[in-house]
Amino acid sequence: MGLIVTLVFVGAFSVVALLLVAGGQGASQKAKQVVATLESALATETPQIREKLVDLRKSTRFSGIPWLNQKLLNVQLAPLLQTLLKQADLKWTAGQLMSMCGLGFAIPAYLVYLRFAQLLPTLGVGLVFGAVPIGYVLFKRTKRFNSFQAGLPPALDLMVSALRAGHSLIAAMGLVARECADPIGCEFRSCFEEQNFGLELKTALDNLINRVPLQDLRIVATAILIQKESGGNLAEVLDKTAHVIRERFRLKRKIATHTAQGRLSGLILSLLPVVTGCALCAVNPKMMSILWTTAIGLKLMWTAFGMIIVGGLIIRHIVNMDV
Fold it and tell me: Lowest CB count within 10 Å: 55, 88, 166, 195, which one?
Protein backbone atom coordinates (compact mmCIF):
# COMPACT_ATOMS: atom_id res chain seq x y z
CA MET A 1 0.00 0.00 0.00
CA GLY A 2 2.83 2.39 0.88
CA LEU A 3 4.56 1.59 -2.42
CA ILE A 4 1.39 2.40 -4.39
CA VAL A 5 0.99 5.74 -2.57
CA THR A 6 4.63 6.57 -3.25
CA LEU A 7 4.31 5.74 -6.95
CA VAL A 8 1.12 7.82 -7.27
CA PHE A 9 2.81 10.76 -5.56
CA VAL A 10 5.92 10.51 -7.73
CA GLY A 11 3.78 10.22 -10.88
CA ALA A 12 1.66 13.27 -9.95
CA PHE A 13 4.76 15.28 -9.14
CA SER A 14 6.37 14.30 -12.44
CA VAL A 15 3.27 15.38 -14.39
CA VAL A 16 3.21 18.74 -12.59
CA ALA A 17 6.93 19.24 -13.21
CA LEU A 18 6.52 18.44 -16.92
CA LEU A 19 3.61 20.87 -17.21
CA LEU A 20 5.67 23.58 -15.57
CA VAL A 21 8.56 23.01 -17.96
CA ALA A 22 6.30 22.78 -21.03
CA GLY A 23 4.26 25.86 -20.17
CA GLY A 24 7.25 28.02 -19.28
CA GLN A 25 9.00 28.36 -22.61
CA GLY A 26 9.20 32.12 -22.16
CA ALA A 27 10.60 31.76 -18.67
CA SER A 28 12.32 28.38 -18.75
CA GLN A 29 15.12 29.39 -16.42
CA LYS A 30 12.70 30.43 -13.69
CA ALA A 31 10.69 27.22 -14.12
CA LYS A 32 13.88 25.18 -13.75
CA GLN A 33 14.70 26.99 -10.52
CA VAL A 34 11.23 26.29 -9.15
CA VAL A 35 11.40 22.59 -10.03
CA ALA A 36 14.90 22.29 -8.58
CA THR A 37 13.81 23.95 -5.33
CA LEU A 38 10.79 21.65 -5.00
CA GLU A 39 12.88 18.57 -5.72
CA SER A 40 15.40 19.61 -3.10
CA ALA A 41 12.60 20.18 -0.61
CA LEU A 42 11.29 16.67 -1.23
CA ALA A 43 14.76 15.22 -0.79
CA THR A 44 15.64 17.03 2.43
CA GLU A 45 14.14 19.75 4.58
CA THR A 46 16.53 22.36 5.91
CA PRO A 47 15.97 25.91 7.18
CA GLN A 48 17.43 27.24 3.94
CA ILE A 49 14.97 25.20 1.83
CA ARG A 50 12.04 26.28 3.99
CA GLU A 51 13.09 29.91 3.57
CA LYS A 52 13.21 29.45 -0.21
CA LEU A 53 9.73 27.91 -0.20
CA VAL A 54 8.37 30.87 1.74
CA ASP A 55 9.98 33.21 -0.78
CA LEU A 56 8.28 31.28 -3.61
CA ARG A 57 4.88 31.61 -2.01
CA LYS A 58 5.06 35.26 -0.99
CA SER A 59 7.39 38.01 -2.12
CA THR A 60 7.31 41.63 -0.97
CA ARG A 61 8.67 44.36 -3.20
CA PHE A 62 10.17 47.30 -1.36
CA SER A 63 10.99 49.25 -4.52
CA GLY A 64 10.16 49.25 -8.23
CA ILE A 65 13.89 49.43 -9.06
CA PRO A 66 15.26 45.85 -9.15
CA TRP A 67 18.72 46.52 -7.74
CA LEU A 68 17.34 48.81 -5.02
CA ASN A 69 14.70 46.21 -4.12
CA GLN A 70 17.45 43.58 -3.78
CA LYS A 71 19.42 45.87 -1.48
CA LEU A 72 16.37 46.70 0.64
CA LEU A 73 15.60 43.00 1.07
CA ASN A 74 18.87 42.74 3.01
CA VAL A 75 18.16 45.78 5.19
CA GLN A 76 16.16 45.23 8.38
CA LEU A 77 14.82 48.80 8.22
CA ALA A 78 12.86 48.16 5.02
CA PRO A 79 10.23 45.78 6.53
CA LEU A 80 9.61 48.26 9.35
CA LEU A 81 9.06 51.11 6.88
CA GLN A 82 6.80 48.90 4.75
CA THR A 83 4.72 48.05 7.83
CA LEU A 84 4.38 51.74 8.70
CA LEU A 85 3.26 52.52 5.15
CA LYS A 86 0.64 49.77 5.23
CA GLN A 87 -0.64 50.96 8.59
CA ALA A 88 -0.86 54.51 7.21
CA ASP A 89 -2.72 53.20 4.12
CA LEU A 90 -0.20 54.80 1.75
CA LYS A 91 0.62 53.20 -1.61
CA TRP A 92 4.30 54.06 -1.39
CA THR A 93 7.13 51.57 -1.13
CA ALA A 94 9.96 51.58 1.37
CA GLY A 95 12.34 52.57 -1.43
CA GLN A 96 10.20 55.58 -2.37
CA LEU A 97 10.00 56.70 1.24
CA MET A 98 13.76 56.42 1.70
CA SER A 99 14.34 58.28 -1.57
CA MET A 100 12.07 61.12 -0.45
CA CYS A 101 13.90 61.31 2.87
CA GLY A 102 17.23 61.41 1.02
CA LEU A 103 16.09 64.18 -1.31
CA GLY A 104 14.52 66.07 1.59
CA PHE A 105 17.88 65.96 3.34
CA ALA A 106 20.17 66.67 0.39
CA ILE A 107 18.44 69.57 -1.40
CA PRO A 108 17.77 71.90 1.61
CA ALA A 109 21.17 71.04 3.11
CA TYR A 110 22.91 71.95 -0.15
CA LEU A 111 21.03 75.26 -0.39
CA VAL A 112 21.86 76.17 3.21
CA TYR A 113 25.51 75.26 2.67
CA LEU A 114 25.67 77.53 -0.38
CA ARG A 115 24.27 80.37 1.70
CA PHE A 116 26.21 80.01 4.97
CA ALA A 117 29.06 77.54 4.20
CA GLN A 118 28.73 76.09 7.70
CA LEU A 119 28.41 72.39 8.47
CA LEU A 120 26.26 72.50 11.62
CA PRO A 121 23.34 74.56 10.22
CA THR A 122 23.52 72.48 7.05
CA LEU A 123 23.13 69.20 8.96
CA GLY A 124 20.38 70.63 11.16
CA VAL A 125 18.25 71.87 8.27
CA GLY A 126 18.88 68.68 6.28
CA LEU A 127 17.80 66.45 9.16
CA VAL A 128 14.64 68.47 9.76
CA PHE A 129 13.51 68.38 6.12
CA GLY A 130 14.67 64.78 5.70
CA ALA A 131 12.39 63.71 8.54
CA VAL A 132 9.32 65.37 6.98
CA PRO A 133 8.26 62.27 4.91
CA ILE A 134 8.57 60.03 7.99
CA GLY A 135 6.56 62.55 10.00
CA TYR A 136 3.85 62.58 7.33
CA VAL A 137 3.65 58.78 7.38
CA LEU A 138 3.37 58.76 11.18
CA PHE A 139 0.70 61.48 11.02
CA LYS A 140 -1.38 59.49 8.53
CA ARG A 141 -0.89 56.34 10.61
CA THR A 142 -2.04 58.06 13.80
CA LYS A 143 -5.03 59.59 12.02
CA ARG A 144 -6.07 56.20 10.63
CA PHE A 145 -5.66 54.51 14.01
CA ASN A 146 -7.77 57.22 15.68
CA SER A 147 -10.47 56.70 13.04
CA PHE A 148 -10.35 52.94 13.64
CA GLN A 149 -10.58 53.44 17.39
CA ALA A 150 -13.58 55.74 17.04
CA GLY A 151 -15.40 53.29 14.76
CA LEU A 152 -14.68 50.15 16.79
CA PRO A 153 -17.57 50.43 19.33
CA PRO A 154 -20.26 50.82 16.62
CA ALA A 155 -18.72 47.85 14.78
CA LEU A 156 -18.93 45.78 17.96
CA ASP A 157 -22.56 46.83 18.40
CA LEU A 158 -23.23 45.57 14.88
CA MET A 159 -21.54 42.26 15.70
CA VAL A 160 -23.60 41.96 18.90
CA SER A 161 -26.83 42.52 16.95
CA ALA A 162 -25.81 39.90 14.38
CA LEU A 163 -24.93 37.35 17.09
CA ARG A 164 -28.22 37.91 18.90
CA ALA A 165 -30.02 37.44 15.58
CA GLY A 166 -28.48 33.95 15.31
CA HIS A 167 -25.45 34.55 13.07
CA SER A 168 -22.07 33.00 13.75
CA LEU A 169 -19.01 35.03 14.74
CA ILE A 170 -17.50 34.74 11.25
CA ALA A 171 -20.77 35.86 9.66
CA ALA A 172 -20.89 38.81 12.07
CA MET A 173 -17.35 39.80 11.06
CA GLY A 174 -18.39 39.59 7.41
CA LEU A 175 -21.34 41.89 8.17
CA VAL A 176 -18.97 44.43 9.73
CA ALA A 177 -16.69 44.15 6.68
CA ARG A 178 -19.61 44.92 4.35
CA GLU A 179 -21.43 47.59 6.34
CA CYS A 180 -18.72 49.59 8.12
CA ALA A 181 -16.60 52.26 6.46
CA ASP A 182 -12.84 52.08 6.19
CA PRO A 183 -10.55 51.53 8.02
CA ILE A 184 -12.87 49.28 10.07
CA GLY A 185 -14.36 47.65 6.99
CA CYS A 186 -11.13 46.86 5.14
CA GLU A 187 -9.35 45.46 8.20
CA PHE A 188 -12.24 43.21 9.23
CA ARG A 189 -12.61 42.21 5.58
CA SER A 190 -9.02 41.00 5.56
CA CYS A 191 -9.63 39.04 8.76
CA PHE A 192 -12.87 37.58 7.33
CA GLU A 193 -11.14 36.53 4.10
CA GLU A 194 -8.30 34.89 6.03
CA GLN A 195 -10.93 32.86 7.86
CA ASN A 196 -12.47 31.83 4.55
CA PHE A 197 -9.06 30.74 3.26
CA GLY A 198 -8.70 28.36 6.20
CA LEU A 199 -6.65 30.21 8.81
CA GLU A 200 -7.46 29.61 12.46
CA LEU A 201 -9.37 32.31 14.29
CA LYS A 202 -6.42 33.04 16.61
CA THR A 203 -4.04 33.48 13.67
CA ALA A 204 -6.46 35.76 11.83
CA LEU A 205 -6.96 37.90 14.94
CA ASP A 206 -3.20 38.04 15.54
CA ASN A 207 -2.73 39.28 11.98
CA LEU A 208 -5.43 41.89 12.57
CA ILE A 209 -3.66 43.10 15.71
CA ASN A 210 -0.34 43.25 13.86
CA ARG A 211 -1.93 45.45 11.21
CA VAL A 212 -3.70 47.65 13.78
CA PRO A 213 -1.75 47.50 17.06
CA LEU A 214 -4.32 49.20 19.30
CA GLN A 215 -5.03 48.32 22.91
CA ASP A 216 -8.79 48.40 22.34
CA LEU A 217 -8.51 45.86 19.52
CA ARG A 218 -6.35 43.63 21.72
CA ILE A 219 -9.15 43.70 24.32
CA VAL A 220 -11.66 42.59 21.68
CA ALA A 221 -9.42 39.80 20.38
CA THR A 222 -8.68 38.58 23.92
CA ALA A 223 -12.39 38.53 24.77
CA ILE A 224 -13.23 36.53 21.63
CA LEU A 225 -10.45 33.99 22.20
CA ILE A 226 -11.33 33.52 25.89
CA GLN A 227 -14.97 32.98 24.98
CA LYS A 228 -13.92 30.44 22.34
CA GLU A 229 -11.92 28.45 24.90
CA SER A 230 -14.27 28.69 27.89
CA GLY A 231 -17.66 29.20 26.22
CA GLY A 232 -20.38 31.60 27.26
CA ASN A 233 -22.52 34.32 25.75
CA LEU A 234 -20.28 36.01 23.16
CA ALA A 235 -22.84 38.73 22.42
CA GLU A 236 -22.85 39.81 26.07
CA VAL A 237 -19.04 39.70 26.21
CA LEU A 238 -18.71 41.92 23.13
CA ASP A 239 -21.40 44.27 24.44
CA LYS A 240 -19.50 44.80 27.68
CA THR A 241 -16.24 45.12 25.71
CA ALA A 242 -17.79 47.88 23.58
CA HIS A 243 -18.88 49.64 26.77
CA VAL A 244 -15.35 49.46 28.20
CA ILE A 245 -13.87 50.83 24.96
CA ARG A 246 -16.35 53.73 24.94
CA GLU A 247 -15.46 54.59 28.53
CA ARG A 248 -11.73 54.48 27.76
CA PHE A 249 -12.28 56.67 24.71
CA ARG A 250 -14.34 59.16 26.75
CA LEU A 251 -11.69 59.26 29.49
CA LYS A 252 -8.92 59.84 26.93
CA ARG A 253 -10.78 62.81 25.46
CA LYS A 254 -11.39 64.22 28.92
CA ILE A 255 -7.70 63.95 29.76
CA ALA A 256 -6.76 65.53 26.40
CA THR A 257 -9.07 68.46 27.20
CA HIS A 258 -7.56 69.02 30.65
CA THR A 259 -3.96 68.76 29.38
CA ALA A 260 -4.43 70.87 26.23
CA GLN A 261 -2.91 73.95 27.87
CA GLY A 262 0.15 72.03 29.05
CA ARG A 263 0.72 70.47 25.63
CA LEU A 264 0.42 73.84 23.91
CA SER A 265 2.80 75.42 26.42
CA GLY A 266 5.32 72.66 25.81
CA LEU A 267 5.08 73.10 22.05
CA ILE A 268 5.54 76.88 22.26
CA LEU A 269 8.44 76.65 24.69
CA SER A 270 10.18 74.07 22.52
CA LEU A 271 9.76 75.94 19.23
CA LEU A 272 10.29 79.50 20.49
CA PRO A 273 14.12 79.34 20.78
CA VAL A 274 14.44 77.70 17.35
CA VAL A 275 12.13 80.18 15.63
CA THR A 276 13.80 83.14 17.36
CA GLY A 277 17.25 81.90 16.36
CA CYS A 278 16.19 81.46 12.71
CA ALA A 279 14.68 84.96 12.65
CA LEU A 280 17.82 86.54 14.12
CA CYS A 281 19.97 84.57 11.68
CA ALA A 282 17.93 85.96 8.78
CA VAL A 283 18.17 89.53 10.13
CA ASN A 284 21.82 89.53 11.24
CA PRO A 285 23.73 86.40 10.09
CA LYS A 286 27.09 87.78 11.23
CA MET A 287 25.96 88.09 14.84
CA MET A 288 24.35 84.65 14.94
CA SER A 289 27.34 82.98 13.24
CA ILE A 290 29.21 83.36 16.55
CA LEU A 291 27.24 80.37 17.80
CA TRP A 292 28.81 77.96 15.29
CA THR A 293 32.13 79.67 14.53
CA THR A 294 33.50 79.89 18.06
CA ALA A 295 34.16 77.20 20.64
CA ILE A 296 32.07 78.81 23.38
CA GLY A 297 29.25 79.41 20.88
CA LEU A 298 29.16 75.73 19.92
CA LYS A 299 29.05 74.70 23.58
CA LEU A 300 26.20 77.11 24.28
CA MET A 301 24.24 75.95 21.24
CA TRP A 302 24.59 72.25 22.05
CA THR A 303 23.65 72.95 25.67
CA ALA A 304 20.58 74.88 24.52
CA PHE A 305 19.49 72.06 22.19
CA GLY A 306 19.96 69.51 24.96
CA MET A 307 17.91 71.57 27.43
CA ILE A 308 15.13 72.06 24.85
CA ILE A 309 14.92 68.32 24.21
CA VAL A 310 14.99 67.43 27.92
CA GLY A 311 12.36 70.06 28.72
CA GLY A 312 10.10 68.85 25.90
CA LEU A 313 10.39 65.25 27.08
CA ILE A 314 9.58 66.23 30.67
CA ILE A 315 6.47 68.17 29.60
CA ARG A 316 5.41 65.29 27.35
CA HIS A 317 5.81 62.84 30.25
CA ILE A 318 3.66 65.06 32.48
CA VAL A 319 0.75 65.57 30.05
CA ASN A 320 0.67 62.02 28.61
CA MET A 321 -1.36 59.60 30.70
CA ASP A 322 -2.01 55.94 29.96
CA VAL A 323 -5.66 54.93 30.17
Answer: 166
